[in-house]
Structures are given as structure tokens and as C-alpha cells.
Automatic annotation (TrEMBL):
Belongs to the acyl-CoA dehydrogenase family. Residues 322-426 form the Acyl-CoA dehydrogenase/oxidase N-terminal domain. This is Alkylation response protein AidB-like acyl-CoA dehydrogenase. Residues 430-524 form the Acyl-CoA oxidase/dehydrogenase middle domain. Coiled coil: none annotated. Gene3D superfamilies: Acyl-CoA dehydrogenase/oxidase, N-terminal domain, Butyryl-CoA Dehydrogenase, subunit A, domain 2, Butyryl-CoA Dehydrogenase, subunit A, domain 3. The keyword RNA-binding does not apply.
Amino acid sequence: MLSVDENTELLTRQWHFPDLADEAALARLWGLAAARGWFDSGSLAATVALVRATGAAACPLPVMDGFVATGLLATAPQITAGIAAGDIRILVAVTDPATGTVPFMAAGTAASHVLALPSGGGRASLRPVEFAVPQPGLASPAWARLHLGGPEADVDVGPEQAGRALTLLRLGLAVRAMAAARQTHDRSVAHAKVRRQFGRAIGGFGAVQQRTATREIELVAGELLIEDAVRRLGADAPDGVLATELAVSHATAVASRIQLSAHHTLGAGGYFEEHDAPWLFRRVHADLALLPTCPPPNGTVADLLIGPATGLPVVGSTSRAAAVREEARSFCAAHRSRVRLLGKGDDPGLVAEMAARKWFGMTWPAADGGRDAPLIEQLAVQDETAYHQLPVAIAMAAVSVIGAPIVKYGTAGQKARYLPRILDGELTFCLGYSEPEAGSDLASLTTTAIRDGDDWVINGTKAWIGNAHAAEYIWLAVRTDVDAKLPLAGISMFMVPMATAGITTEPHQALSGQICCTVRFDDVRVSDCARVGPVNRGWQVITDTLTGERLLLAGELAGMSRRQFDELLAAVRADPDGVAGPSGSDKRARLSCLAVQVQAVNLLLTEAAGRAGSGAAHTARLASSMAGVLAAEVAEQLSRDVLEILGPAAALDAPDAPGAGIFEQGLRLSVLAFLGGGTNDVQRGLIARGLGLS
């Protein structure tokens, strides 16, 4: 079996629109692929990798059909050997085995046989193709209506086997469509870097960056959902079917709009058939159109969740992280809050119990009081506390926002002063970044710190500072070089006691119920020992620990969204048809969509944490930004859709209301989700620049 790159090279050479990609080329490619072992991989992961390669080439070579047929015909070794050798060019059709005609078959003009598979199980029939009638239209090469001969072999297929076959065929179509969309998207990104309009590369235009970042998030989320489905199906996990339907539902929702968005960026050059984009467009839409011919074996995502499934599949992690999560889950479940009262601060007793379990600062070096744990373990604890709505968010945030930079940049004295208190959950703080004229654009901050001997004198105003009215310290970004040519080069970081003379606070109540403050600094004098990190290098202090901070914010949202989704699911299960309607209803469609989005956020968070743990700083920052954007959007969509699914009762804040008030609070909090840590628009700009657009 050749590598994916080598097989992709084969496709590139043998299948290229408009010159080499037709029915005759497909038959020739089928034989070449068989000679290279494409139909004898024995591995679902390898098969999916090959399907992905065909999608990127806009090629309908039915690799997944071969894999499925080989599995179903395992008791007929002569036939499976013929499939592997390419002597039997097989398609799988979900139809009555007695049917003599099968419509809408991709690659049908090159096929020699069809395995007719009854959707609910029964006797499947291998039948030769007597002749094929091309059906010109969207698909290229055209679909065909196949006229079949008499059975050459029959095989009994149980309901579970048939269900797995349908699941795999659906996965194959989704993988191929997403891969084609990915290819067009990547071409559009490359185009945006060089195409100039109005005197600059179009990749520098905000609209192009926003669109590109949105599509990249959808693609990465889809790829992670597919990988998760492949892992579970490959291991015969009981939630493999649900994981697959999550991936298929996502592809159905996003692949066509990713394709269209890429065409938008490519412009007229991508509309003509000398370019690959038109052929990829055909591939995406043709494969999505075929999905209904392969119905889901157990219904939609919503049907599965309302029925046999216990909930969304648990996102995989290391065995140690899973153990930490289980320990945290048990603890949190025993202290589960109805709804966290935002703005009321942490519960000292709960914080002390968590500190006793050494759940703060887990990722820090042992020399600093931590245990050198990977980030995924800290996030497991954070996720469970957010899910169970434990009032410990400030203590958790102190670990990432203040503790991490002090671990990396702090002096011995600063470490001794602050780290033990953060580990004990006793240090309360607020974040002093935003100003009236400097929100997401931190480079525009105007609060200054001027050196005066061994001290610094701070003047300026910070705005929208959460918890400032109750905090002991403010983690403060100030300008220490007002003449810096590069604005970010003149910023420094300080840890300032809120009780320092000259600091005043003016509280404001937010839509969420939280208290935020305007904080004014009037000739506030602090010692140089309050500075953390080098002078004028504060931006580096911030960005070196930014991934952890973004994951903290995204994790808080994701945990709450998971709780909301589970509460929604519980309400629906109590009266499925009354609340969500019958299978196929609009409310069930909304529930399916929400399930996909919640699961995608969980996978993105895990991926970002894994990249951070592997030392891949750039890709970790990119993934954390994507997780943050998607988490915010899911939080808002979930809260809004819940009101439409459950009705007015979900808007109540009462113990006997659905979700006990978490839905209406989640909706009010969702606005902040788009703002915290930099607005989603700014984050998309960062993602686009991470892809090379500027």
C-alpha cells in the first residue's frame, strides 16, 4: 500500500479536468488504483484517506463502495479477490436486490457489478451491469442508470451489518464532498495572497479575511468530526454511528457554502472550466445530492439522541486526562449548582476543596508548585466545573491569566508572593486590558506608566473590567514607551494591588448580571517590583500565554453549552413528539444542528490543547482562536434555539423551569462570548493572518 502522498500523485497524473477526467479515464484509473492496493486496504482509516484524495481531485472513484462490498462479501473470497484486483469494479446500491434498474450511480459507466443491498438487512445480491445509460447533469462524469443482469452471488446481511454499510457509505460521500470543498478553499486562500485589486492583495481585505476564517473553522471542525467518526467506527465503538451522523450532518450543512465562499474569493477566474473550481463544485454538490439515496440506518442525529444514544460521544483524550476528568466530574456532581450566579464571586469553600486536590496550576513545573501535567488535564477540570456551574471561575482563571505568565516571566520574589496564593485559590484579580478607545485593539491603549526612580506612575482609564469591585489585584497592561515606533513594542505588564492610592472604580451591571467597572488611575505609584516581564515587552508576556487564556474562555463557554444541551435533551426526552415533533420536523433538525456544533467545539478544544502540549505554538494559537470563535457562536445559537424549541418556559429563571434558568442566563451571557478576549471579528482576522492573508 502506497502512502497517501504517492496515491494523491497518481490521481493528479491520471485524473485532471478538463483533459483526462472522463468515463474512459475513470475505468483506466480504477485498474491502476486496484494495482496499487486501493481496494485491498483492510483499514477504514486508510480507505478514508484515499476517499479524501479522490475528493480533492473531484474524482468519483468508488473507494468506499469497494471497502463496504469487501466487508459484506467476506465469505466469498473469489469475489473479494476480484474486487481487490480490479477485475470486479463494484458499486453498492441501497435497493431491493430484485430491482433490475438502479438510477443515479456515480462512476456507473465504469462499473462492472453492483451489490444490491436491502437497507434493513436481508439477502444482498451481486449482479453484473448489462449496460449503463449516462444521465447528464450536475455530476461530471455523469451519473448513470444501470441495468443489471441476474444474480451471480447472494449473501445474507444482518440488520447491524446493513446499518454499518449504510453508515460507511454516508461517511464516504461526506468525506469526498468535504475534501473537494477543502481543495477549493485552499486554492482560494492561495489566490487571495497574490490577486491584487485596488493596489493591494485581496487577502488583506477584511471581508475576504472574515469569510476565509469562517470557512477554515467549518473545515477544521468537519475534519475533526470525520476523524472522530473513523476512530470510533474502526474500533467498533457503540457510538460510532452517532459520531458518523454528526460528521455527515456537518458536511451536509457546510460543504456547499464553503465551496461557494471559495468561488467568491476566486472571482471570475474560478468560474471557467480551465480552473479546477468548477469541477470541484460539481463534486461537492453531486455527492451531497446522493446522500438521500443512502438513508441513515437509525435516523438523524436528533433521532439517535432522543432514542438509544445516552448523549454526545465523549471526546477522546489520554487515559490520564480521562481519569482526571472522572475525578473532577464526581466532585462537581456532588456540588452541582442550579445556575451559577454571575457577578457573585467564587465560593471559598469549594475553591479550598479544589485546592486541596491540587487542581489549580496543574500544568506548572513542579518547582513552582505544579505537577507538569499536560494542558488537556487542566482543561478537563475546567470543563467539568463550567458544565456543573460551580462558582470557582475566578480561581480557575487566575491560573492561566496571571499564574502562567508569572511562572514564565516572574522573579523569584514574585513567584513566592503570588503562586502559592493562586495554587490555594485565594488570589482574586481583574484583567486590566480594555480601555474606552482600546478594546480588541490592545496596541491602541493609552494608559501610561512613567518611570520615576524605582517607581512607576500610572495614569489612565480602563473600561469594562469584570470583578474590579471585588478584586485584590489588577493584571494591568500599560504603555511604558509613548514614542515606540511599533505600538506593541511599548507595552509593559504590572501586577497592581487594587487598594493602591489613586485607583477608583465605578461599577456597572452587565446584561449577564455581572458587575464590570470603569477603573481610573490618577498618579498611581507602584514599585518596579510590580512589573512582570521585561520593560516594553508586555505584548510578548501576553501572547506567550494567550493560547491558555483563549482556551480558558472557550472552555468556559463550551462547558456551559454542553450543560445547556444536556438540559435541552432531557426536556425533549421527557416528551419527544410533544416537544420536538416527529422525525424530520424542524425542531428535530435544529436539535441535530446544535448537537453537531456542540461536539465540534469539544473536538476543537481538545485539538488546540493537544497542539499546545506538543509545543506547536503557532497552530495551537490558531486552533484556540477557532475554538473560541465557534464556542461563542454555538453559545448564542444554542440559547436562542432552545427558546424556540421549548417555548416561553425556557425563558424563566426558576427551579422548576426547563434547565432551571440556565437557558435564559446563557442567552444573556452569549453577547459577552462574542466580546471576551477580543471580538469574534478580530479573532477571525487573526485566523486569516495565521493562514497567510495580510
